[in-house]
Predict the 3D structure of the following.
Amino acid sequence: MGIEDKLQLLREQMQKRGLAAYIVPTEDFHNSEYVGDYFKAREYLSGFTGSAGTLLVCMESAALWTDGRYFLQAGQQLAGSPIELMKSGQPGVPSLSEYLAGHLETGDKVGFDGRTVTRAFVEELRKKMAKKQIIYCGGEDLVDLVWPDRPPLSAEPVWELAEEYAGLSREEKLARVRQKMQEEKADALLMTALDEIAWLLNLRGNDVCNTPVFLAYMLLLEKKAVLCVQEKILSQEIKDKLKRADVTILPYEEIEKQVGSLQAGQRLWADGRRVNYQLLNTIPAGVEQLDQPGPAALMKAVKTPEEMAHLRAAHVKDGVAVTRFIRFLKTRVGREEITEMSAAGVLEGFRKEMEGYLGSSFAPIIAYGPHGAIVHYEAVPDTDAQIQPRGLCLADTGGHYEEGTTDITRTIALGELTAEEKRAYTLVLKGHLRLGAAKFLQGVCGQNLDCLARQPLWENGLDYNHGTGHGVGYLLSVHEGPQNFRWRISKDTDCVPLEEGMVISNEPGLYVTDKFGIRHENLVLCRKGEQNEYGQFMYLEPLTMVPFDRDAIEASLLNEQEKAWLNAYHTKVYERLSPYLEEEEQKWLQAATMAVE
Amino acid sequence: MGIEDKLQLLREQMQKRGLAAYIVPTEDFHNSEYVGDYFKAREYLSGFTGSAGTLLVCMESAALWTDGRYFLQAGQQLAGSPIELMKSGQPGVPSLSEYLAGHLETGDKVGFDGRTVTRAFVEELRKKMAKKQIIYCGGEDLVDLVWPDRPPLSAEPVWELAEEYAGLSREEKLARVRQKMQEEKADALLMTALDEIAWLLNLRGNDVCNTPVFLAYMLLLEKKAVLCVQEKILSQEIKDKLKRADVTILPYEEIEKQVGSLQAGQRLWADGRRVNYQLLNTIPAGVEQLDQPGPAALMKAVKTPEEMAHLRAAHVKDGVAVTRFIRFLKTRVGREEITEMSAAGVLEGFRKEMEGYLGSSFAPIIAYGPHGAIVHYEAVPDTDAQIQPRGLCLADTGGHYEEGTTDITRTIALGELTAEEKRAYTLVLKGHLRLGAAKFLQGVCGQNLDCLARQPLWENGLDYNHGTGHGVGYLLSVHEGPQNFRWRISKDTDCVPLEEGMVISNEPGLYVTDKFGIRHENLVLCRKGEQNEYGQFMYLEPLTMVPFDRDAIEASLLNEQEKAWLNAYHTKVYERLSPYLEEEEQKWLQAATMAVE
């Protein structure tokens, strides 16, 4: 069926209900970053496969909003379809709510599946169309009626993360979360973020692409814990263990009834930014909502000593695989045919050789030459470029291991580089090194430190249009909050002090359109350092163990301190990785980690 | 009359009214940083002369809270009195509200002059004593009844700041503020901050120590502007000009009636953090309060091109005076008797020689040796130290000129320094230089940049326990918001992007108890730099023009970039100041600004 036909079927359903417009976002019911196939309604209807975008279908028109990462891809995938591409944030491009305000008449009805949007999204619509009496219909998933071969809701088996890895039992975690509820005088806590539920129960699954979580909701009370989940994904052993932790298992869809049965006068902790619109609407009148981030996000972000120890091991494994990949690429390019996609396959092969490897933590980005300048480039057969023995190849990939999640970017020099490429590589490296070497007082937030990574670029009138770093989960989502390295501070910004045990990426970049892209990414672990009369100092321990490319460094641009930091890191990389390498590989790594002078 | 007698008189008044406690804060009715003599009730009752502190008088006890700057001074001044010193923030020391919660019984009455406290202060009391039904009596100034020789309310003549200096007429400023009111749909704006009113009307006064402002309130409506002020401080000429700008003049005390006459349904913009408690309580029921910072603070912080040009001139004058002072101190110390207080007098003399000098912008800090480690040290006859030809002397002073306000700290090397002193001096200088050289994107806040100044100290396990910088007014308060350089971010933190025209101090320090203190302070002017595909870059233009002390610099600790920044600054200092110096002074400055290699 073509796009036109699919939209026609949807419009017939809209007409039956008197809807003037229907909105199809990308999200699942849990506001997940990646979603399972069941939830790919926007992709099904529009043909656009990117990870972010919102489709709007009106009776006479249709439009799709996506961000700068996907302008090119969306343009190609929507070409020839009746769907207009809306480049979010570009001058003159209306936002979805502005567009709707221009197209709807007073009294019109707009529909959407209320489980796939947030309250903030609906509030934004209301605000922009305050003067028109628009009726919002969030109760029905119309796409389901027009998608004959829709994949079923994913129901992959749940498995247990051994306490040896987690460091805390689920009983201990439940007690800690309940302690926070007590502090906030909350009678109930509604958890809908899949990584938080997986973390809390020391369980993992496979219902969402690149993220080892399972579809579930959780309602926690003082004396009761209700897990709403497809029962078939739980083994008897896990059910028994959950029972021992006093967790009641109910069907996945049952969550609305559970929330709806709360009593007036009770205080429910539910994060209005995360819980979906429809579920928030089922909170009975008289139940007070404590609308702030739930306690699990921060607890999960602060890794236990056991998690920290395992993470170091995971990063040595990942470092071996990535170092092998870099050696492969640098030594074989030009001698055999290598494309971006085949290179990604080679790296995946090296990772699979590692014990405990479970799969990639996001779709690999192997971006050669000008492709490197497209920040979220993902090679597909149409774009898959031959890698040549010249210029730069950006490789941003990551894996899940039983010992934790990795995320690493290296930019690899192939053959001779231009002076411009070396200068750019080195300026970004200076920023990476300065942030990585930061020592700071407890209480400092990522917002305070971001500029350390940007300063060498800003001094030269350069910048990168993304955050410097994101939090990383432990065998959970490769992107987690609340910790990060960003500079923008707004009312809605999470500004949390960096605590011992938080894992954050340090990944400044520089992107020169049509030429090359550079990004240097290590994961760093926030640690306590010296404590003295001035306070508790903190530092960032690098977890990632992979050399930077000496062939791309313009040493004259590094100051003595930066050279010392780089050389110390390279010494550590060699020490950690060499025991796991073959003799030839060891020799190669020794040369690759020689001191820069 | 002794302290005991004064407290006794107050207690008699308290008893008549059935008050169990009475609170005497430091503030005037305008939440000013410095206050006029009329408002020094806490000083009168307690004998403590510091600029911050709150006195609590109960029937059987009395206590005074002050912060770390004043522990020493308050300890000396309260010694022998019945008032207990409470060191705010020290472990085990209760806050005022905690102390009250421990001393008051259910149903007790606590009194204070509601014009001298903020609503936040009273809310904090309510919160801490939520379980006791305390009655808050903010309607009466009891100190007035027991202070026979209280100085009258200051009523110094108001004078006009020429439009040539301000850059905008009062009519233009009124129109801009009203524009903001319209954007916020505010029918009225209540202004109580004295510097905002002085800024808005292009008037200056002399009712508050170190700050050229006058006592006034302002209520601005769309078609009406009411200035509540002691009429006698306005000349006929100024009254005529205000009339031409449609400003109605009413008595100072009339403000409460004016606010009280607002109509239900109107929307009043009144910053609950600044407007005093009693005045907020006069807002009639049904008047909606828009409780956010008023528009004048930000407008005032962004200097006009005319103000910027005059500021440069003011800083050259101030630079000449301070440079003469440094030369005097370095060449005469050991040859004649110089004390901290006499040195302050010498510097004041040099400033007075400058045309357009109006007075100091705060009490001068000349702190020799160990006194430098006391952050807000102010020499008094009892502490006034002889300055010797060895060690470091910290000089933090500032002046008001018609062309603007200055604030500068230099730490001056006298004779040979120890290696520890030179290292400390140079580490602080590195931070000062790094922040001063910052180039950054528009949108960046002071919170993003603060760490640049601290990094060289943090790397060595050192810190200073104060912000790196504060905003500075134009011939107004030497401390103004909302711009600053600080790293702590909280819900109540002002995080505002740095805009072209903002003036901020850059003043990292290091304080080694019983040894020395170091602070390097320039005022910097935020400027627009290069604009390119990455955005609008900003930089900080140094306004202060005074050399750092080459004798104190350990050059081996500076990297090449830092040396280049320092030498470029010194070249500019010489160029700007030398035309105004005598030949001998020029020679001295030439040597003092020679390149550091």
Notes: The CA atoms of residues 302 and 502 of chain A lie 5 Å apart. Chain A has a mean pLDDT of 96. Chain A has 18 helices and 28 strands. The first helix of chain A runs from residue 3 to 17.
